[in-house]
Amino acid sequence: MKKQTLIVTSIVILIALYIAGSFAYKYFYLKNLNENASVFVRAHSPIIGNEKATTTIVEFFDPACGTCKAFSPFVKNIIQKHPDKLKLVLRYAPFHTDSYYVVQMLEASKLQNRYFETLDVIFKHQEKWAINHSSNIAKLWSFLPEAGLDVEKLKNDMKRPEIDAIIKQDIADSKLLGVNQTPEFFVNGKPLKRFGYKELEELINSEL
Questions:
Q1: DSSP 40
Q2: What pLDDT is attached to residue 37?
């Protein structure tokens, strides 16, 4: 009898600890999210969709990442289904070798108002310049005119210190949020706990 009572008591204690832990996690997660809201969206972050949308998808990506390329049309398609309710915020996490230079190209293309055109070209030819997790920058240059870019101006603009500062800010934010692979998604600050197309769509739909 005493043994059964001890077992029941132990189970009750474990359940109580689980419930308390869940509440504590939720409290501190939301508190941390509120205090660090800016780590998700910065003033410099490119946005796809309705800038005033109430549901925000934040994606940390690497332009040399094949999975990032694969998810790009998938996420855009979801946004097209809910054009007024969704926005995608793009953030950098250049994990692949020499991806930092590719991100510099992207940022510099903003100064020619060709950011999304440049990103499209980079993804279009990704298999030709991003091989074995390494970026062939010399080969990538030959594709950039397709985006309507002045390549010489781009090369000069890449050297601007403010561009370097933007990339370093994104990297710092990615570390703070525990991003260790790409693409990494957050929807209204909530992380994608299990990676996949279906899982991402379900998380987005739960926030609409």
A1: T
A2: 74
Q: Which two tokens stand for residue 101?
A: 């230079």
Question: Cβ contacts of residue 45 below 8 Å, gap of 6+?
Answer: 89, 90, 91
Q: Does pLDDT of 28 surpass 60?
A: no
- Would the pTM count as exceeding 0.85? no
Beta strand extents in the chain (DSSP E only): 47-49, 55-61, 86-92, 130-131, 134-135, 184-187, 190-191
Give the CA angle between residues 199, 205, 207 to the nearest 5°: 110
Distance CA 153, CA 87 (A): 30
Whether residue 58 contacts residue 192, with contact meaning beta carbons closer than 8 Å, is answered with: no
The owner of tokens 């504590």 is: 24
DSSP designation for 144:
G
| pLDDT tens digit sequence for 39-54 | 999 999 999 999 999 9
For the cut 60, the answer to whether the pLDDT of residue 192 exceeds it is: yes
User: In Å, what is the CA distance from 191 to each residue of 57, 58, 84, 142, 183?
Assistant: 10, 9, 22, 37, 12
Residue 42 near residue 169, CB atoms below 8 Å: yes
One-letter amino acid for residue 175 of the chain = K
Segment 176-182 shows an average pLDDT of: 96
